[in-house]
Amino acid sequence: MDPLVLRNGLIYFIILAASLCLRAFAQAWTAHRLGDRTPALEGRLTLNPMPHVDLLGTIVLPLICIFYLQPALDRASLRFFLGWAAPVPINPHNFRNPRTGVLLTQFAGTAFSILLSLVAAVIAGICLRLHNQGPVEIFGVIIIINCSLMVFDCLPLPPLPGGVLLRHLGFMSEETFVHIARWSGLVMLILINIRPVANMISLLVELATIPFSIVMQLVAL
After folding, report:
1. Which of 7, 84, 82, 10 is nearest to 52 (CA)?
2. pLDDT tens digits, one per residue of 108-165
3. How many Cβ atoms are within 10 Å of 44's Cβ, its own excluded?
4. What per-residue string of b and e applies to 65-77 under the rule 16 or more CB within 10 Å gives b?
């Protein structure tokens, strides 16, 4: 393997894994703030990445996305990155409003990705304004990765937030949710290898990056 490809791939993997673990912490923190101490009792209210790692979602699928689905890792323009952390355990009965609490907790990771992308866009814009091109590509990768995770969150597939939303809107029974969630990892591996699906995800990610690109350009003026 080309050393440059390996180097860039490892950088992308570290950023992706770190983003996934920080998103899981954001979910645990949100649940805790809403009155559920379950994540803290289960050791998930921590910035230590190890409790948040899921073998398939945090290791295997990201490596597949990086080294198999990205044909040009030596270029800044990448298609998409997918993955997930270990599910954060919660007890909805500890929330004042169980339905609202569950949804806020599930989408806390999405909110974190938006915030992180916004911060990365601002810093990248400042670097451009100071004519310091070096860090810009890294911050661009942070934006692409987190926009990918935002798109991933919206997919109506349990146990992703989009699937949780369908369940709470009454479009999916608890039994169906649990059954699909059991096979969701395999389903995602299959879907991302279907070219039309991969192209659609790539397009959605590209659209999601537009607001942050605008912010970066405005800051750079």
Report:
1. 84
2. 999 999 999 999 999 999 999 999 888 998 999 999 999 999 999 998 888 788 888 8
3. 24
4. bbbebbeebeeee
- Per DSSP, 57 falls in state I
Cβ proximity of 25 and 52 under 8 Å: yes
pTM, to two decimals: 0.89
Domain ranges, ordered by start, for the chain: 3-220
As a whole number of angstroms, the distance between CA 103 and CA 95 comes to: 11
How many angstroms separate the CA atoms of 43 and 55, rounded? 18
Structure token pair of residue 92: 């909805």
Quickly tell me which residue has 């920080």 as its tokens.
Answer: 22
- Residue 131 is given by DSSP the state T
Q: Cα dist. 112→142, 148, 216 in Å?
A: 12, 13, 18
The residues, ordered by sequence, that sit 6+ positions from 112 with a Cβ below 8 Å of its Cβ are: 22, 23, 26
